[in-house]
Design brief:
Glutaredoxin, four-stranded mixed beta sheet, about 55% helix
Protein backbone atom coordinates (compact mmCIF):
# COMPACT_ATOMS: atom_id res chain seq x y z
CA UNK A 1 0.00 0.00 0.00
CA UNK A 2 2.83 2.40 0.91
CA UNK A 3 4.54 1.77 -2.44
CA UNK A 4 1.29 2.50 -4.26
CA UNK A 5 0.89 5.78 -2.33
CA UNK A 6 4.44 6.78 -3.25
CA UNK A 7 3.75 6.08 -6.90
CA UNK A 8 0.62 8.21 -6.78
CA UNK A 9 2.48 11.05 -5.04
CA UNK A 10 5.35 10.87 -7.54
CA UNK A 11 2.80 11.26 -10.31
CA UNK A 12 0.78 14.02 -8.65
CA UNK A 13 3.48 16.26 -7.15
CA UNK A 14 4.90 17.65 -10.43
CA UNK A 15 1.37 18.31 -11.67
CA UNK A 16 0.32 19.84 -8.35
CA UNK A 17 3.33 22.15 -8.46
CA UNK A 18 2.25 23.45 -11.85
CA UNK A 19 -1.36 23.84 -10.64
CA UNK A 20 -0.26 25.76 -7.54
CA UNK A 21 1.97 28.01 -9.64
CA UNK A 22 -0.85 28.72 -12.10
CA UNK A 23 -3.22 29.54 -9.23
CA UNK A 24 -0.63 31.87 -7.70
CA UNK A 25 -0.25 33.71 -10.98
CA UNK A 26 -4.01 34.14 -11.20
CA UNK A 27 -3.94 35.92 -7.85
CA UNK A 28 -1.38 38.52 -8.99
CA UNK A 29 -2.73 42.09 -9.19
CA UNK A 30 -4.24 42.68 -12.61
CA UNK A 31 -3.46 46.38 -12.44
CA UNK A 32 0.26 45.74 -13.06
CA UNK A 33 -0.17 45.48 -16.81
CA UNK A 34 -2.64 44.52 -19.47
CA UNK A 35 0.03 43.43 -21.91
CA UNK A 36 2.95 41.08 -22.22
CA UNK A 37 6.53 41.88 -21.27
CA UNK A 38 7.27 45.58 -21.70
CA UNK A 39 10.75 45.29 -23.20
CA UNK A 40 12.96 48.36 -23.33
CA UNK A 41 13.44 49.95 -26.78
CA UNK A 42 15.63 48.08 -29.26
CA UNK A 43 19.28 48.99 -28.74
CA UNK A 44 19.04 49.33 -24.96
CA UNK A 45 22.29 48.08 -23.44
CA UNK A 46 22.81 46.14 -20.25
CA UNK A 47 24.49 49.21 -18.77
CA UNK A 48 21.44 51.37 -19.53
CA UNK A 49 19.13 48.72 -18.12
CA UNK A 50 21.19 48.75 -14.93
CA UNK A 51 20.67 52.49 -14.49
CA UNK A 52 16.90 52.09 -14.82
CA UNK A 53 16.81 49.02 -12.58
CA UNK A 54 18.56 50.92 -9.79
CA UNK A 55 16.16 53.82 -10.12
CA UNK A 56 13.09 51.55 -10.05
CA UNK A 57 14.44 48.97 -7.56
CA UNK A 58 14.04 46.10 -10.05
CA UNK A 59 16.01 43.17 -11.35
CA UNK A 60 17.12 42.91 -15.01
CA UNK A 61 15.82 40.27 -17.41
CA UNK A 62 17.90 39.70 -20.56
CA UNK A 63 16.63 37.72 -23.55
CA UNK A 64 19.71 36.54 -25.48
CA UNK A 65 18.47 35.69 -28.98
CA UNK A 66 19.55 35.38 -32.61
CA UNK A 67 17.54 36.13 -35.73
CA UNK A 68 17.78 32.51 -36.97
CA UNK A 69 16.72 30.80 -33.72
CA UNK A 70 13.30 29.13 -34.00
CA UNK A 71 12.63 28.80 -30.24
CA UNK A 72 13.65 32.48 -29.83
CA UNK A 73 10.93 33.49 -32.30
CA UNK A 74 8.41 31.22 -30.60
CA UNK A 75 9.06 32.86 -27.22
CA UNK A 76 8.89 36.34 -28.73
CA UNK A 77 5.69 35.70 -30.67
CA UNK A 78 3.75 33.36 -28.39
CA UNK A 79 4.97 33.60 -24.79
CA UNK A 80 6.28 37.11 -24.10
CA UNK A 81 3.08 38.84 -25.36
CA UNK A 82 0.83 36.92 -22.95
CA UNK A 83 -0.84 39.01 -20.27
CA UNK A 84 -0.02 36.49 -17.53
CA UNK A 85 3.67 36.86 -18.40
CA UNK A 86 3.63 40.65 -18.44
CA UNK A 87 1.65 40.74 -15.19
CA UNK A 88 4.42 38.88 -13.41
CA UNK A 89 7.46 40.32 -15.19
CA UNK A 90 6.82 44.05 -15.56
CA UNK A 91 6.57 45.04 -11.88
CA UNK A 92 9.75 43.11 -11.09
CA UNK A 93 12.12 43.45 -14.05
CA UNK A 94 13.64 45.87 -16.48
CA UNK A 95 13.50 43.63 -19.54
CA UNK A 96 15.77 43.87 -22.58
CA UNK A 97 16.30 41.84 -25.74
CA UNK A 98 19.75 41.68 -27.37
CA UNK A 99 20.69 40.00 -30.63
CA UNK A 100 23.84 38.09 -29.67
CA UNK A 101 25.21 38.39 -33.20
CA UNK A 102 24.89 42.19 -33.33
CA UNK A 103 27.85 44.54 -32.91
CA UNK A 104 26.98 45.05 -29.23
CA UNK A 105 25.69 41.54 -28.63
CA UNK A 106 28.62 39.47 -29.96
CA UNK A 107 31.18 40.69 -27.38
CA UNK A 108 28.55 40.44 -24.64
CA UNK A 109 27.78 36.84 -25.63
CA UNK A 110 31.47 36.02 -25.30
CA UNK A 111 31.70 37.76 -21.93
CA UNK A 112 28.60 35.99 -20.59
CA UNK A 113 29.65 32.65 -22.14
CA UNK A 114 26.38 32.32 -24.07
CA UNK A 115 26.55 29.18 -26.20
CA UNK A 116 22.93 28.26 -26.97
CA UNK A 117 19.73 30.11 -27.80
CA UNK A 118 17.53 31.32 -26.40
CA UNK A 119 19.37 31.95 -23.13
CA UNK A 120 17.63 34.04 -20.48
CA UNK A 121 19.82 35.77 -17.89
CA UNK A 122 18.67 37.49 -14.70
CA UNK A 123 20.84 40.18 -13.10
CA UNK A 124 20.54 42.32 -10.00
CA UNK A 125 20.33 46.08 -10.46
CA UNK A 126 24.14 46.29 -10.57
CA UNK A 127 24.16 43.97 -13.61
CA UNK A 128 25.64 41.11 -11.57
CA UNK A 129 24.27 37.77 -12.73
CA UNK A 130 21.89 35.95 -10.39
CA UNK A 131 20.82 33.05 -12.60
CA UNK A 132 20.08 31.84 -16.12
CA UNK A 133 18.19 29.19 -18.04
CA UNK A 134 17.88 28.00 -21.62
CA UNK A 135 15.29 27.03 -24.17
CA UNK A 136 11.72 27.71 -25.19
CA UNK A 137 8.79 26.76 -22.95
CA UNK A 138 5.15 27.48 -22.24
CA UNK A 139 4.24 30.57 -20.23
CA UNK A 140 3.73 28.87 -16.87
CA UNK A 141 6.98 26.92 -17.13
CA UNK A 142 8.85 30.04 -18.24
CA UNK A 143 7.58 32.01 -15.25
CA UNK A 144 8.45 29.20 -12.85
CA UNK A 145 12.01 29.21 -14.19
CA UNK A 146 12.19 33.00 -13.88
CA UNK A 147 11.06 32.74 -10.28
CA UNK A 148 13.53 29.96 -9.50
CA UNK A 149 16.48 31.73 -11.13
CA UNK A 150 15.68 35.07 -9.49
CA UNK A 151 16.82 33.68 -6.18
CA UNK A 152 20.52 34.25 -5.63
CA UNK A 153 22.11 30.79 -5.68
CA UNK A 154 25.23 31.99 -3.88
CA UNK A 155 27.38 31.74 -7.00
CA UNK A 156 28.90 35.16 -6.33
CA UNK A 157 30.16 33.93 -2.94
CA UNK A 158 31.53 30.78 -4.59
CA UNK A 159 33.29 32.87 -7.19
CA UNK A 160 34.80 35.03 -4.45
CA UNK A 161 36.19 31.90 -2.76
CA UNK A 162 37.64 30.75 -6.09
CA UNK A 163 39.16 34.17 -6.78
CA UNK A 164 40.71 34.15 -3.30
CA UNK A 165 42.49 30.87 -4.01
CA UNK A 166 40.27 28.28 -2.30
CA UNK A 167 41.10 24.94 -3.93
CA UNK A 168 39.50 22.53 -1.48
CA UNK A 169 38.21 19.59 -3.61
CA UNK A 170 34.76 19.57 -1.99
CA UNK A 171 34.36 23.30 -2.64
CA UNK A 172 35.59 22.90 -6.21
CA UNK A 173 32.98 20.22 -6.93
CA UNK A 174 30.23 22.41 -5.49
CA UNK A 175 31.36 25.41 -7.51
CA UNK A 176 31.74 23.29 -10.64
CA UNK A 177 28.17 22.01 -10.32
CA UNK A 178 26.90 25.58 -10.05
CA UNK A 179 28.86 26.68 -13.12
CA UNK A 180 27.68 23.66 -15.10
CA UNK A 181 24.06 24.37 -14.18
CA UNK A 182 24.43 27.95 -15.44
CA UNK A 183 26.22 26.88 -18.65
CA UNK A 184 29.40 28.87 -17.96
CA UNK A 185 31.69 26.59 -19.93
CA UNK A 186 34.88 28.63 -19.70
CA UNK A 187 34.72 29.06 -15.93
CA UNK A 188 33.69 25.43 -15.52
CA UNK A 189 36.73 24.34 -17.52
CA UNK A 190 39.03 26.33 -15.23
CA UNK A 191 37.59 24.71 -12.11
CA UNK A 192 37.72 21.27 -13.77
CA UNK A 193 41.40 21.80 -14.55
CA UNK A 194 42.01 22.59 -10.88
CA UNK A 195 40.22 19.39 -9.85
CA UNK A 196 42.30 17.32 -12.28
CA UNK A 197 45.60 19.03 -11.46
CA UNK A 198 48.36 16.42 -10.92
CA UNK A 199 45.84 13.65 -11.70
CA UNK A 200 46.39 13.55 -15.46
CA UNK A 201 47.69 9.98 -15.40
CA UNK A 202 45.24 8.63 -12.81
CA UNK A 203 41.85 10.34 -13.20
CA UNK A 204 40.63 7.67 -15.65
CA UNK A 205 40.26 5.25 -12.72
CA UNK A 206 37.93 7.60 -10.82
CA UNK A 207 34.34 7.75 -12.12
CA UNK A 208 33.70 11.23 -10.66
CA UNK A 209 36.84 12.70 -12.20
CA UNK A 210 36.06 10.99 -15.51
CA UNK A 211 32.71 12.78 -15.49
CA UNK A 212 34.48 16.08 -14.78
CA UNK A 213 36.79 15.52 -17.73
CA UNK A 214 34.07 14.58 -20.22
CA UNK A 215 31.58 17.19 -19.05
CA UNK A 216 33.79 20.20 -18.38
CA UNK A 217 37.22 20.13 -20.02
CA UNK A 218 37.04 22.34 -23.12
CA UNK A 219 40.60 23.69 -23.24
CA UNK A 220 42.90 21.67 -25.54
CA UNK A 221 45.90 23.02 -23.62
CA UNK A 222 44.67 21.52 -20.33
CA UNK A 223 47.18 19.01 -18.97
CA UNK A 224 44.49 16.34 -18.64
CA UNK A 225 43.45 16.81 -22.27
CA UNK A 226 47.00 16.73 -23.64
CA UNK A 227 47.80 13.56 -21.69
CA UNK A 228 44.57 11.89 -22.82
CA UNK A 229 45.11 12.85 -26.46
CA UNK A 230 48.61 11.35 -26.34
CA UNK A 231 47.72 8.33 -24.17
CA UNK A 232 44.02 7.59 -24.75
CA UNK A 233 44.29 3.92 -23.79
CA UNK A 234 43.77 4.54 -20.03
CA UNK A 235 40.49 6.35 -20.52
CA UNK A 236 39.40 4.04 -23.33
CA UNK A 237 39.81 1.06 -21.01
CA UNK A 238 37.26 2.64 -18.66
CA UNK A 239 34.76 4.12 -21.14
CA UNK A 240 35.35 2.52 -24.52
CA UNK A 241 37.07 3.90 -27.60
CA UNK A 242 34.32 6.03 -29.17
CA UNK A 243 33.59 8.44 -26.25
CA UNK A 244 37.30 9.30 -25.98
CA UNK A 245 37.71 9.87 -29.72
CA UNK A 246 34.59 12.05 -29.78
CA UNK A 247 35.77 14.07 -26.78
CA UNK A 248 39.15 14.81 -28.36
CA UNK A 249 37.53 15.72 -31.67
CA UNK A 250 34.91 17.99 -30.06
CA UNK A 251 37.45 19.90 -27.98
CA UNK A 252 39.66 20.53 -31.01
CA UNK A 253 36.72 21.50 -33.21
CA UNK A 254 35.35 23.93 -30.65
CA UNK A 255 38.70 25.56 -30.01
CA UNK A 256 39.41 26.24 -33.67
CA UNK A 257 36.38 28.57 -33.72
CA UNK A 258 37.87 30.63 -30.89
CA UNK A 259 40.82 31.85 -32.94
CA UNK A 260 38.44 33.97 -35.03
CA UNK A 261 37.15 37.20 -33.48
CA UNK A 262 34.10 39.10 -34.68
CA UNK A 263 34.68 42.67 -33.56
CA UNK A 264 32.10 45.22 -32.42
CA UNK A 265 32.66 47.28 -35.60
CA UNK A 266 31.65 44.29 -37.74
CA UNK A 267 35.17 43.37 -38.82
CA UNK A 268 36.56 39.85 -38.51
CA UNK A 269 40.13 39.03 -37.49
CA UNK A 270 42.29 35.98 -36.97
CA UNK A 271 44.16 35.78 -33.68
CA UNK A 272 47.42 34.78 -35.32
CA UNK A 273 49.24 34.04 -32.05
CA UNK A 274 46.44 31.77 -30.84
CA UNK A 275 46.18 30.16 -34.30
CA UNK A 276 49.93 29.41 -34.42
CA UNK A 277 49.86 28.05 -30.87
CA UNK A 278 46.98 25.75 -31.82
CA UNK A 279 48.83 24.48 -34.88
CA UNK A 280 51.88 23.73 -32.72
CA UNK A 281 49.68 21.81 -30.29
CA UNK A 282 48.20 19.71 -33.12
CA UNK A 283 51.72 18.86 -34.24
CA UNK A 284 52.74 17.94 -30.69
CA UNK A 285 49.68 15.71 -30.34
CA UNK A 286 50.46 14.12 -33.73
CA UNK A 287 46.84 14.61 -34.81
CA UNK A 288 46.59 12.73 -38.13
CA UNK A 289 44.23 15.22 -39.75
CA UNK A 290 45.80 18.41 -38.41
CA UNK A 291 45.33 20.13 -41.77
CA UNK A 292 41.58 19.77 -41.32
CA UNK A 293 41.64 22.19 -38.38
CA UNK A 294 43.95 24.63 -40.16
CA UNK A 295 41.95 24.73 -43.38
CA UNK A 296 38.55 24.67 -41.65
CA UNK A 297 39.59 27.74 -39.67
CA UNK A 298 40.79 29.57 -42.78
CA UNK A 299 37.64 28.61 -44.71
CA UNK A 300 35.47 29.97 -41.89
CA UNK A 301 37.56 33.16 -41.70
CA UNK A 302 37.24 33.76 -45.44
CA UNK A 303 33.50 33.09 -45.28
CA UNK A 304 32.97 35.63 -42.50
CA UNK A 305 35.04 38.18 -44.40
CA UNK A 306 33.10 37.41 -47.61
CA UNK A 307 36.46 36.89 -49.31
CA UNK A 308 35.17 34.41 -51.91
CA UNK A 309 38.48 34.17 -53.74
CA UNK A 310 40.26 32.98 -50.58
CA UNK A 311 37.23 30.89 -49.61
CA UNK A 312 37.29 28.88 -52.82
CA UNK A 313 41.08 28.61 -52.71
CA UNK A 314 41.04 26.99 -49.26
CA UNK A 315 38.22 24.63 -50.32
CA UNK A 316 40.31 23.49 -53.31
CA UNK A 317 43.33 23.03 -51.06
CA UNK A 318 41.21 20.94 -48.68
CA UNK A 319 39.90 18.75 -51.52
CA UNK A 320 43.37 18.22 -52.99
CA UNK A 321 44.88 17.15 -49.65
CA UNK A 322 45.31 13.37 -49.74
CA UNK A 323 45.05 13.18 -45.92
CA UNK A 324 41.61 14.79 -45.87
CA UNK A 325 38.22 13.86 -47.26
CA UNK A 326 35.24 16.21 -47.42
CA UNK A 327 32.03 14.23 -47.74
CA UNK A 328 29.13 15.29 -49.95
CA UNK A 329 27.28 16.98 -47.10
CA UNK A 330 30.33 19.09 -46.32
CA UNK A 331 30.43 20.17 -49.97
CA UNK A 332 26.77 21.11 -49.70
CA UNK A 333 27.45 23.17 -46.55
CA UNK A 334 30.23 25.04 -48.37
CA UNK A 335 27.61 26.33 -50.83
CA UNK A 336 25.76 28.18 -48.05
CA UNK A 337 27.59 31.58 -48.32
CA UNK A 338 26.70 31.98 -52.00
CA UNK A 339 23.65 34.23 -52.40
CA UNK A 340 21.97 35.74 -55.46
CA UNK A 341 24.08 38.86 -54.83
CA UNK A 342 27.39 36.96 -54.97
CA UNK A 343 29.50 37.64 -58.07
CA UNK A 344 28.56 34.98 -60.63
CA UNK A 345 32.19 34.08 -61.33
CA UNK A 346 32.54 32.74 -57.79
CA UNK A 347 29.27 30.81 -58.03
CA UNK A 348 30.46 29.19 -61.25
CA UNK A 349 33.71 28.14 -59.56
CA UNK A 350 31.75 26.53 -56.72
CA UNK A 351 29.50 24.90 -59.31
CA UNK A 352 32.58 23.36 -61.00
CA UNK A 353 33.67 21.89 -57.64
CA UNK A 354 30.26 20.27 -57.18
CA UNK A 355 30.20 18.95 -60.74
CA UNK A 356 33.59 17.34 -60.23
CA UNK A 357 32.23 15.42 -57.23
CA UNK A 358 29.08 14.44 -59.15
CA UNK A 359 31.25 13.10 -62.00
CA UNK A 360 33.23 10.95 -59.53
CA UNK A 361 30.00 9.50 -58.16
CA UNK A 362 28.63 8.76 -61.62
CA UNK A 363 31.92 7.10 -62.61
CA UNK A 364 31.69 4.83 -59.57
CA UNK A 365 34.82 6.30 -57.99
CA UNK A 366 32.84 7.58 -55.00
CA UNK A 367 29.68 6.42 -53.31
CA UNK A 368 26.86 8.91 -52.79
CA UNK A 369 25.80 9.22 -49.16
CA UNK A 370 22.42 7.90 -48.14
CA UNK A 371 22.77 8.77 -44.45
CA UNK A 372 24.55 11.15 -42.08
CA UNK A 373 25.43 9.40 -38.85
CA UNK A 374 22.26 7.60 -37.75
CA UNK A 375 20.00 9.83 -39.84
CA UNK A 376 18.83 8.47 -43.18
CA UNK A 377 18.63 11.03 -45.97
CA UNK A 378 15.45 11.42 -48.01
CA UNK A 379 17.51 11.30 -51.21
CA UNK A 380 21.11 10.34 -52.06
CA UNK A 381 23.61 13.16 -51.94
CA UNK A 382 24.38 13.16 -55.67
CA UNK A 383 20.80 14.37 -56.21
CA UNK A 384 21.33 17.05 -53.57
CA UNK A 385 24.51 18.23 -55.28
CA UNK A 386 22.72 18.31 -58.65
CA UNK A 387 20.03 20.49 -57.10
CA UNK A 388 22.66 22.87 -55.67
CA UNK A 389 24.28 23.17 -59.11
CA UNK A 390 20.93 24.42 -60.35
CA UNK A 391 20.62 26.85 -57.43
CA UNK A 392 24.03 28.31 -58.24
CA UNK A 393 22.71 28.86 -61.79
CA UNK A 394 19.75 30.75 -60.35
CA UNK A 395 17.17 27.98 -60.69
CA UNK A 396 14.63 27.22 -58.02
CA UNK A 397 14.65 23.60 -56.74
CA UNK A 398 12.38 21.49 -58.93
CA UNK A 399 12.80 23.62 -62.06
Amino acid sequence: MMKMKNKILNYLLPNLQGMVWSMALMLLPLSATAQGIAFEPEGTTLEQASVKAKAENKLIFLDCFTTWCGPCKMMSNQVFPQEIVGTYMNPRFVSIKIDMESAYGAPLAKKLQIQAYPTFVIFNADAKEIGRFLGGSKAEEFLQKVQDKSRDDGSSELQARWDNGDRDPQFLMSYLNTLTATYKANDANNVAEALLEDKETTFAADSTLRMVFFRNITNPFAKSFIYTAKHPENLMAATGEMPVKMKVQNVLNNYQRQVITENADGSVTLDQEKFDKFQALLKDLAVPNADHYRLSTLITLAEKKKDYNAYLGYIREYLSNSNLDADDMQLARWVKPFTPETDNKYKQQMKAILQQRIALIKAGKRQAQSSVGNMRLSRPTDELLEMLVGVLDGKMPGQ
